[in-house]
Description:
Number of helices: 7
Largest sheet: 7 strands, mixed
Shape: globular
Helix content: 10-25%
Number of strands: 11
Order of helices and strands: HEEEEHEEEHHHHHEEEE
Radius of gyration: 22 Å
Structural class: alpha+beta
Amino acid sequence: MDSTENQAYNVGKYRTPDGAPADIVIFTITQTEKQTAKKSLPYRELMVLLIRRKRWPFAGSWALPGGFGKESETLFDTARRELMEETGVADVHLDYLNVYSKPGRDPRGWMISHAFFALVNEKWLEKRKAQDDAEDVKLFTVTEALHELELAFDHREIIADAYRNIQQQMLVTTIAKEFLPELFTLSELYQVIQTVVPEFKETNFIRKITSTQSRKGIIQVACDESGEKLYSNQYSQRPAQLYRFTDYVPEVSIYT
């Protein structure tokens, strides 16, 4: 654009949105120990963090945490800032989901929301508390959020989209590690996958996941400093081999 065009350009001729919020779907997996005599895996549930709005619009309704972007930051920066305010952590899996711009989605005006999703370990949400603009903050199961609660704006649609997204990623990436300790058993890994994707069933899971030929080493046997293999009997009668994820990022193709 030359100087003449620059002087002729009038930004006031174009309608701009009234706000660009970043909404965040924060997922976690909670675990509850089973009160049984025999050792077994805990109950695990996929949960989503919601806030109860204090002010108009939708005062008293549950909604996704989020906030308006600033001119001095990108929307990713906005999402990271809001995530830090809600959970106290920033170094977690945060990914872009989609843009939501349906006319009338927000009674305050023309609001184009950019949605993100975050995968946060349960331990970081233990001391969560509501911010000044919210009455309460709470974890709900995905089923409760999608089918039982009165949600603000179009947040039900956003949560549904995010849920489908992480289900797909759970099967083709290593995001399961976001919900596991650094060292884990294969039974724990399998349970986490099924917690996010209930219909997932693989009778040969252990053989396939430990096959470096088919999985190219996305996990490895955990060893101590002297090279001795590490085991755990926390959830089993017999010691179970511990594993850890490697840094390998698998390349998945529907054609192979």
